[in-house]
């Protein structure tokens, strides 16, 4: 385990040693991976969207039992129980609250009042400026190379526009760059752009500390740079994942033929989560309001957790999907989180020193 070699506004803000973030991936970012990242000096983020309230409480307690280092929890800002979950973070003294969608200003204020760093994920410069004006402490920007829900703009273009937008708005909040990062060269490049760190999902999924089944990890390791696809056929929104027989089948199936399996998986998710139909409908209405989804997209969204669980937890690729960034095509090993973070940071330092030697 290496000492701190790079200090950025993000490491100062969160208290982590290294400007490396393990993103909150549903069914993947559990206590073992989060604590492994935290103990390695990075910021591990617990994914709570696929957890019930009680499961989240237990997961936070488990992480705190495994590490004394700062960590975060990713929350759905549009979830019906978002205020209760935020209170849970306050009660447990969690360091960082990250959000896939921006929380309301009053929720940001409540978290900040209790010393919790608020870091929404955004996909456009205007969104970064907006959440900064609401009081967000940092933002994570994910380019189109990233896994899971993603946009069409690559990180190399999205990141500078976000940085420029914040600068024009006279905001100096730290920006974490995500989408396409896997090694120290990427961290050095992000820092050179003006980011304060990098976020990685697929790279942390493919570590020894990840609870994803070994057979599924091997499937990822065998894939190349062209073996992912962005599709809206899974949950109605652009979603990058590995090309599998199931995904190819979904791509060629009509909405009518997908309706039966969609309803079955929605019922499975309701049973797994313990949510009542009233709570599920309330969440759906909140999602429609926050994201502008159609009724069909909301139905698809409700069955997505079940499909991800089948692939990433149960290892059943015939019934499940496997979210993945394009970096899967350049990853060929399964280090521990400590080995991964150490080599990313040391390589970044080497690259930054090499680049600085060009300056005359």
TrEMBL record:
InterPro entries: Aldolase_TIM, NMO. Keywords: Flavoprotein, FMN, Monooxygenase, Oxidoreductase. Signal peptide: none annotated. One of its GO terms (molecular function) is monooxygenase activity. PANTHER family: 2-NITROPROPANE DIOXYGENASE, 2-NITROPROPANE DIOXYGENASE-LIKE PROTEIN. This is Nitronate monooxygenase. The lineage of its organism: Bacteria, Bacillati, Actinomycetota, Actinomycetes, Propionibacteriales.
